[in-house]
Amino acid sequence: MNFYKTISQSTLSTAVTVLVGLIITKVTSNVIGPEGTAINGQFSAYQNLLVLVGTGLLANGLVRQVSRNKKES
Length: 73
Fold this sequence. Notes:
With 73 residues, the chain is mainly α. It is 96% helix and 0% strand. The chain has one helix spanning 3-72. The longest helix is centred in the middle third of the chain and has 70 residues, at 3-72. The model has no long low-confidence stretch (mean pLDDT 86).
């Protein structure tokens, strides 16, 4: 694929993602209010933290098991 075509598609994808995020945040704040939006944001941050911890532990265990099995082979 062409370098400039890749950059333009990536830029368009990022712009659409940001625009959709802003629209969803605006609709959410109108429906459940600013307090609800803040609680939703806190929940999202907590959920991302749990995913990060789980993924990190899984990756660490996976690397450990692969290195042990490589030594035994």
